[in-house]
Amino acid sequence: MIKLVIDTLGGDRGAEVCVKGAVRSLIEHDDLSLVFTGDETEIKNILAAEKYDEKRVETAHAPDVISCNDKPTDAIRQKKESSMYKAIDLLKNDASVNGLVTTGSTGALLAGAVLKVGRIRGVKRPAFCPVMPTMNMGVVAICDSGANVDCDSLQLTQFAVMASLYMQKAYGVENPKVALLNVGTEEEKGDMLRKETFALLKENKNVNFVGNMEARDVLGGKYDVVVADGFAGNVLIKSTEGACLEMLKLLKKTFTSGLKNKLGALLLKKDIYKMKDFMDYNNYGGAVLLGCAKTVVKSHGSSKEKTVYKSVELAYKLEKSGLGKAIAENIAEKTE
Amino acid sequence: MIKLVIDTLGGDRGAEVCVKGAVRSLIEHDDLSLVFTGDETEIKNILAAEKYDEKRVETAHAPDVISCNDKPTDAIRQKKESSMYKAIDLLKNDASVNGLVTTGSTGALLAGAVLKVGRIRGVKRPAFCPVMPTMNMGVVAICDSGANVDCDSLQLTQFAVMASLYMQKAYGVENPKVALLNVGTEEEKGDMLRKETFALLKENKNVNFVGNMEARDVLGGKYDVVVADGFAGNVLIKSTEGACLEMLKLLKKTFTSGLKNKLGALLLKKDIYKMKDFMDYNNYGGAVLLGCAKTVVKSHGSSKEKTVYKSVELAYKLEKSGLGKAIAENIAEKTE
To answer: How far is A95 from chain B (nearest CA, A)?
Structure first.
């Protein structure tokens, strides 16, 4: 049995999307059970409208919320009645709980996971690893994307190892192509951190390192894993998402200006929706926190029911695949 | 009289676009004169087809090319017959030469400008400052975008001062809104470099600092200047450009798949071209190297004639506006 704790509070859309999304996953898998943390009455009210196996669902009352205005490290220590605190607490202290899914504060999650749940032995720093869709209908993982704004070259090398295993386990990519985010593709490009990391990755026989890459090529589908420090990875993801969204807005404006355009848009509607759907992060689940002692998936703050469902599916799949064990076995060997 | 040296080699499209683009600018301004460096015969052949004031044009024979495969610092010292070497040499040693425009190697240009032409007194490091179009039909300057992969907080503060003056002089923006690129908008976000820079910018009464910004908001039009270290600035620009290009490709694919889509695309054609045109960097001239002792504009490696024209116009405008003098007057006062 795989047991996941679902933090129902802290996301923009409240408990309903979290409960309903997770129950969808529950129905699909006989060997999945859930613990919801949050406002017990609210959770039970939402559950009342659903049909599911009640024996596989528990609730843990913790109605307080950690918001993005709270200081993460303080909040995860002090807000003991918060749904996130409770979820982290269960993950740490309940041996039967395998993983956690939350739409809440990224900072508090990171602090709780690192300070309380701990790391896989040998892992220097856990790292967030979301994926983005690529133009050839695949995905690319960005590791780290914001957990560690300061990194050294050994950490970056570990990110490469962990994200490679993740792409194998979660997406079935054999021998994932790993690139180092840099200001140019030539070997000598970048700062000391990049030069040192390049040397480590080049020597590492267990990572399929294909060299430096430029930010403009992230969506092209040439790479399966992009290795970055948390600052640059964060900039990469947010600017790519931001630009895609602005382009869609511009397109929408074009489509609605004048009768001729409206008619044209009507003809294209179906395929443009496909294009929009393709760029929609709600289809890709959350960002896994690689290197944490237990499975942790951060679903987007504005997650819909579908997004939470995808995130719970991801956590379930990672547990089934034995990603944590694979990282534990490989991290020392592959990064030293 | 404003005299600009135009490096005709090193770009993807060769000398023709450089010569023709620059001559277009020459015709528009009676007080502009040009020196072309490159293959004299080739330059004269291209000039032969143009109508212009011959008294205001010179050539300096230097037919060798610094390519992107050459090591920048070595090339700018050793390739003495290269068009870039000659251009830097003229800029440094000919007092009548005010500025330089090139489509050639960014690395060699930077090395030549910093090592030979030198900095404005008080400037710690020159920085590349390109602009990107924003959704409200303005532009936003990104400083630095790749000249300095390692930065300290004083350098970043100087980038803010220089880029503010640039936006005033080149684009007539009064009191430009300056934001610091970070992983979140809250004051305490980011690494030590961002925290230190935030404190310096907040105290600096001569910069209109509006706080931290996230990469996803760069195109939204809320900011006039984005301050970044060269690594993050480079990632920001390249991922934004890359995502826009990939979206246009996806759009093109959608427009040509099936008869219904083709018909729809036909109706929308005019406005979609407008959208494409809006995102086209060829309309925005080059990236100025702020803080250099003389005006230096790097035009894109794949510049067309129009791009070079815009870059020459930019160099001319910056000279007329007295940007260098303004930086010299403000840099000490505004950053200490």
So the answer is: 34
CB proximity under 8 Å: B 146-205 to A: 146, 149-150, 181, 183, 188, 190-192, 194
User: Phi, psi (5° rounding) for residue B12?
Assistant: -65, -25
Q: Mind telling me how many Å the CA of A229 is from chain B's nearest CA?
A: 10
Instruction: Mention every residue, 6+ apart, whose C-beta is less than 8 A from residue B175.
Output: B208
The DSSP line for B10-44 is: SSTTHHHHHHHHHHHHHHH-TTEEEEEEE-HHHHH
Burial of A5 (0-12, 13-18, 19+ CB in 10 A): buried
Closest CA to A148 of A258, A233, A236, A240: A233
CB distance B191–A232 less than 8 Å?
Answer: no
**Contacts of residue A18, Cβ cutoff 8 Å, sequence gap at least 6:** A6, A7, A8, A9, A11, A36, A38, A103, A303, A308
CB distance A7 to A84 below 8 Å: yes
Is the CB of A249 inside 8 Å of chain B's CB atoms? yes
Across all residues in chain A, what is the average pLDDT?
93
CA distance A21 to A103: 12
Q: A208, A183, A307: which is closest to B232 by C-alpha?
A: A183
CA distance B144 to B151: 10
B256 touching chain A per CB within 8 A: no
What 3 state SS string does A74-118 have?
HHHHHCCCEHHHHHHHHHHHCCCCCEEEECCCHHHHHHHHHHHHC
| C-alpha Rg value of chain A to the nearest Å | 20
Question: Dihedrals φ, ψ of B65, to 5°?
Answer: -120, 135
For tokens 């760029």, name the residue: A279
In tens, the pLDDT along B216-247 reads 999 999 999 999 999 999 999 999 999 988 88
Nearest CA of chain B to the CA of A205: how many Å?
A: 28
Q: What is the dihedral of CA B10, B13, B16, B18, to 10 degrees?
A: -60
The tokens 């590492």 sit on which residue?
A204
> What are the DSSP calls for A125-153, one per residue?
S-EEE-EEE-TTS-EEEEE-SSS-SS--H
pLDDT band at B333 (very low <50, low <70, confident <90, very high): low
In the three-class reduction of DSSP (H, G, I as helix; E, B as strand; rest coil), residue B322 is classed as coil
* Preferred mutation among B67, B231, B239 to probe A, highest tally of A CBs within 10 A: B239
Domains of chain A, each with CATH number or no CATH: 1-123+291-336 (3.40.718.10), 126-247+276-281 (3.40.718.10), 248-274 (no CATH)
- Residues in contact with A71: Cβ distance below 8 Å, sequence separation at least 6, in sequence order: B188
Separation CA A105–CA A71 (nearest Å): 10
Residue B336 predicted with pLDDT over 80: no
Residues with Cβ < 8 Å from A246, sequence gap 6 or more? Answer: B135, B219, B220
Contact criterion met (CB < 8 Å) for A219 and B146: no
Convert the pLDDT of each residue in B256-312 to its tens digit. Answer: 888 888 888 888 888 777 777 777 777 777 899 999 999 999 999 999 999 999 999
pLDDT above 80: residue A206:
yes
Q: Which residues of A95-129 are buried (b: 16+ CB within 10 A; e: fewer)?
A: eebbbbbbbbbbbbbbbbbbebbebbebbbbbbbb
Rounded to two decimals, what is the model's pTM?
A: 0.93
ipTM for the complex shown = 0.92
Nearest to A146 by CA among B205, B155, B216: B216
